[in-house]
Amino acid sequence: MKNFKSFIALLICTVLFNNLSYSQKKQNVDFSQALRLGDNFVPPKDVEIMRGKDKSIDWKSLENKVVLLDFFSTSCGTCIQIMPHLQELEQKHPDKFKVIIVTAQDKETLEQFFAKNKYLKEHQVNLPVIYNDSYFHELFPHNSEPHEVLLFRGKVQAITSSGSINEASILKLFKENVIDLPLKDDYGFGNLFEKLNQTESGLKAGVIFSGYQNGIPFQSWKFEQDSLSGLFKSSHYNNSIYGALLSLTSHANTRDNNYIPRMDRVVWKVRDSTKYYDFKDEKDTWMVKNAISYERFDRQVRADSIQARIILEDFLNFYGLKAYEGNKMMECLILSHCPVEPYVGKELIETVTYRSTTAFSVFTDFALKFPPVVDLVKNDSLLIKIGKYETLQELNKQLMAYGIKAEIGKAEKKVLVIEEVN
């Protein structure tokens, strides 16, 4: 596949956008009604509500509970994934915590969604949903969901992301009447030099590294001309060092390669890898402690690949790091030729058609169900139709109909090496 790296970038973006629902455009948002942390919350006179046990919401009775407004959309995978967790928290602390789902979507759309969603049915999720909402969206404008707002004793206590909503934070707020959680501000924008009181006239060029920037949305690498200074700006906000290096090496390497960003293809030559990546899934807690932000202003514009190599040097010099491609013998899922055996079995469900063995390898790699894939078949014209499977044996029954067999074995694969050099 000639444009393999572009394909991977598109694949990753597709997955991310399927799990993140964008609900409001900045240019269409009226910020005049927006509430900030510490502001008084005035409940709406009436709301349209469905699901849950109550036919209405008694806001007065909720003043002594921590109330979570969980902004949701049916296209937001993460929103759906966290609902059982939120319900469990409420059921565990019914006298302290109340969850209210908020969406701008209409009742018919929601009824169809909840009727069909197997995951929410399996977990018996039945939280109250405010629908056709405009009131709360005006108070708490955002452009990505999930978007979480904590209310307590009539005030806005937190505007944050789903990673901050856990038992510890809820109990802390209930007990201490105050909490400091990372601010989710989808309309914030990063400019680290401005935070150092650099004016347009004083800013010539330079580089700055910093840690987590509260209120600035996550941003992967972006190369653009700064509208204020006219300088060429490279920026990256609130991501892990690993995320920064992975993206940089992708930008810097103009050769075709088949590196898939999965952790078993990273070699850590560092003293403590936990500061580079959130291995324990601590989410916001980890980000506040370990995330990095970066800006570089240049007078000269360069191709992205060249600029990425220069920034890699910045990382090497600042962190004492380098990131480069290597090779490692590892356990792999090896695709090889075999005699054709017609498929005999249950009717295939949830089928996906792959237009080559390369495409099948890429998607299988990205699913992380098996070790990294080695494609020895390399047939770019073979259409492969694969249904749902749980085991390698089930997969092979389908693959052998195309003269392909998948086996676990040892093979050499490209890896990303992250090394501390001092």
TrEMBL record:
Coiled coil start-end: none
Keyword set includes Disulfide bond: yes
Cited Gene3D superfamilies: Glutaredoxin (3.40.30.10)
All copies of domain Thioredoxin, residue ranges: 20-179
InterPro entries per the UniProt record, alphabetical: Redoxin, Thioredoxin-like_sf, Thioredoxin_domain, Thioredoxin_ResA/DsbE_sf
UniProt cross-references to CDD domains, sorted A to Z: TlpA_like_family
Superkingdom of the organism of origin: Bacteria
Keywords attached to this entry: Cytochrome c-type biogenesis, Disulfide bond, Redox-active center
Subcellular localization(s) per the UniProt record: Cell envelope
PANTHER family registered for this protein in UniProt: THIOL:DISULFIDE INTERCHANGE PROTEIN DSBE (PTHR42852:SF6)
Entry protein name: TlpA disulfide reductase family protein
